[in-house]
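// run 5 | inverse folding | seed 20
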C-alpha cells in the first residue's frame, strides 16, 4: 500500500474563508505559546485543547486539533534541521529558524472522522449548526485518509485528497544501478551498468520558461512602479502576473513529470533496482558563479530528482543521493582530473600520458557518479566500449517548441488593450499563451 495525494481547484464560499481564518488563528496561538512563553510540546497540547473547546466557532474538533498539531510538527522539523546544520553548516544557505510568522489563513485539515460519503457526495464535517461541505464523489472511490483545503496566491483555492492505494512492488535487482547527473542545459543525464547506455534530457525548454517568467515579472514590476501602490490598475497587473506565472509553472511541472516518468520506466524495463543521483544541492545554497547565479538558482533539476525518487520508490526501487564532486572533470578511462571544468559539451582527456578518451561532458559526469558511488562497478573498457573504439553516442530526449514574437505588456499604462484579454474576459498580458510555448508529445529517443 502507498499513499498518494490528488489536487484540484476548489470553489470557496464564506464558510470556507472563515474556516481558514480560524485555522490560522489556532496555529498562530500555538506559535506564540512557544515563542513568548517557551512552552513544551505537552504543555502546548494541553493549553490548545482547552483553547479550542472554548473558542472554536466553525472548525470540526479534529480539524482544530490538526491545526496546532501542524505547528508542533513544523517545530520538530526545525530541531531536526538544526541538528543537521550543526553537523554540516555548509549544506545550508543560513541557520534554520523556528516557525515565527502569524497565519491570517491556514489550511483546513479534515481527518477521517470528519469525512463521510453519502448519495454520491463527500461530506466534510464542520461545527454544528453549520452544514457540512459537499463535494461530488464517485461511489466506487475509497474514502480518503484526510482532506486538505488550502489557499495559494498563485493557485487560488485548492482541495487535496490523500488516499491509500494498492501498488504492486516489482522484483528489481539492486546490483543493477542507474546514475543521474543533474544539470542545467541538460536537466538530467542517465547512465546504467546494464547496457552502458547514456541518455540526456534536454533542459533548454525549461530554461526558456524560466527566462519567460523573469521577463514577465520584470516588465510587470516596471509597470507597477509607475502607478500608485494598491491602486486598481496595480492590483490588475498583480492578478495578471499571477495567472501567467501559474501557467508557466504548469508547463514546467508537466515537462518534469514526463521526464521523471521516462527515467523510471527505463529503469524498470531493464530490471534496475537502484538509482543514484548526484547531490548538487550545495550549488543552490552557496552559488558563486557571477552572471550565472540566477540561472543556477532557478534551475529545477532538484525537483526532477525528487519526482524520480518517489515514483521509483512506489514500485519497490531504491533511490539515494551520491557524491558528484569532480565527476565531470575526471577521465573514466585513466582517472586523470582536469584542473578546470571542460569547455563546451565534449570532454577530452588532457592527460600528459597519451589518453585518447573523448565523450559527451554530461555522460562523463554520469559515469563518474557510477564509479564514485557504486563499489561493485569498474570501468571495463572492453565491455563498455563498442567496436569502433568509443562509447556509443548518448541518446537525447527533448521537446519541440514554437516561439512566435508576442508583446508581453501594453505600452499604455492606463488601459489594457482588447487583444490582451482572454476570450472569457479574464486579463491575460500574453494573449494566446499556448502559441508562445507549445509543448508537444515526447519524441522517440534519437541520437544527438
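// decoded
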Amino acid at each position: 500500500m502507498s499513499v498518494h495525494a490528488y489536487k484540484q481547484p476548489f470553489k470557496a464560499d464564506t464558510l470556507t474563508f472563515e474556516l481558514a481564518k480560524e485555522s490560522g488563528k489556532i496555529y498562530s496561538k500555538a506559535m506564540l505559546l512557544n515563542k513568548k512563553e517557551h512552552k513544551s510540546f505537552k504543555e502546548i497540547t494541553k493549553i490548545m485543547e482547552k483553547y479550542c473547546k472554548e473558542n472554536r466557532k466553525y472548525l470540526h474538533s479534529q480539524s482544530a486539533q490538526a491545526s496546532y498539531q501542524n505547528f508542533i510538527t513544523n517545530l520538530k522539523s526545525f530541531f531536526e534541521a538544526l541538528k543537521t546544520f550543526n553537523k554540516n553548516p555548509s549544506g545550508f544557505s543560513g541557520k534554520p529558524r523556528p516557525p515565527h510568522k502569524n497565519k491570517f489563513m491556514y489550511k483546513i485539515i479534515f481527518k477521517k472522522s470528519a469525512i463521510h460519503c453519502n448519495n454520491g457526495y463527500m461530506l466534510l464535517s464542520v461545527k454544528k449548526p453549520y452544514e457540512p461541505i459537499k463535494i461530488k464523489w464517485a461511489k466506487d472511490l475509497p474514502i480518503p485518509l484526510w482532506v486538505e483545503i488550502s489557499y495559494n496566491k498563485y493557485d487560488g483555492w485548492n482541495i487535496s485528497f490523500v488516499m491509500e492505494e494498492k501498488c504492486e512492488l516489482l522484483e528489481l535487482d539492486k546490483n543493477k544501478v542507474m546514475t543521474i547527473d543533474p544539470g542545467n542545459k541538460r536537466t538530467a543525464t542517465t547512465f546504467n551498468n546494464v547496457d552502458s547506455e547514456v541518455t540526456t534530457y534536454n533542459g533548454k525548454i525549461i530554461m526558456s520558461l524560466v527566462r519567460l517568467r523573469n521577463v514577465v515579472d520584470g516588465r510587470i514590476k516596471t509597470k507597477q512602479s509607475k502607478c500608485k501602490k494598491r491602486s486598481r490598475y496595480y492590483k490588475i497587473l498583480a492578478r495578471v502576473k499571477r495567472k501567467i506565472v501559474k501557467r508557466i509553472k504548469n508547463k514546467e511541472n508537466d515537462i518534469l513529470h514526463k521526464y521523471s516518468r521516462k527515467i523510471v520506466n527505463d529503469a524498470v524495463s531493464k530490471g534496475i533496482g537502484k538509482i543514484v543521483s548526484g547531490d548538487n544541492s550545495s550549488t543552490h545554497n552557496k552559488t558563486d558563479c557571477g552572471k550565472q547565479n540566477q540561472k543556477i538558482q532557478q534551475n529545477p533539476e532538484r525537483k526532477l530528482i525528487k519526482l524520480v525518487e518517489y515514483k521509483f520508490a512506489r514500485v519497490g526501487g531504491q533511490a539515494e543521493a551520491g557524491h558528484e564532486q569532480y565527476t565531470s572533470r575526471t577521465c573514466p578511462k585513466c582517472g586523470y582530473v582536469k584542473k578546470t571544468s571542460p569547455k563546451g559539451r565534449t570532454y577530452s582527456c588532457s592527460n600528459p600520458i597519451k589518453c585518447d578518451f573523448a565523450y559527451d561532458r554530461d555522460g562523463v559526469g554520469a559515469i563518474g557518479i557510477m564509479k564514485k558511488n557504486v563499489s561493485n562497478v569498474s570501468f571495463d573498457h572492453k565491455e563498455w566500449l563498442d567496436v569502433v573504439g568509443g562509447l556509443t553516442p548518448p541518446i537525447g530526449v527533448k521537446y519541440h517548441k514554437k516561439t512566435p514574437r508576442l508583446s508581453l505588456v501594453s505600452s499604455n499604462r492606463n488601459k489594457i488593450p482588447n487583444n490582451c484579454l482572454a476570450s472569457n474576459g479574464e486579463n491575460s498580458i500574453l494573449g494566446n499563451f499556448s502559441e508562445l510555448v507549445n509543448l508537444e508529445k515526447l519524441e522517440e529517443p534519437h541520437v544527438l
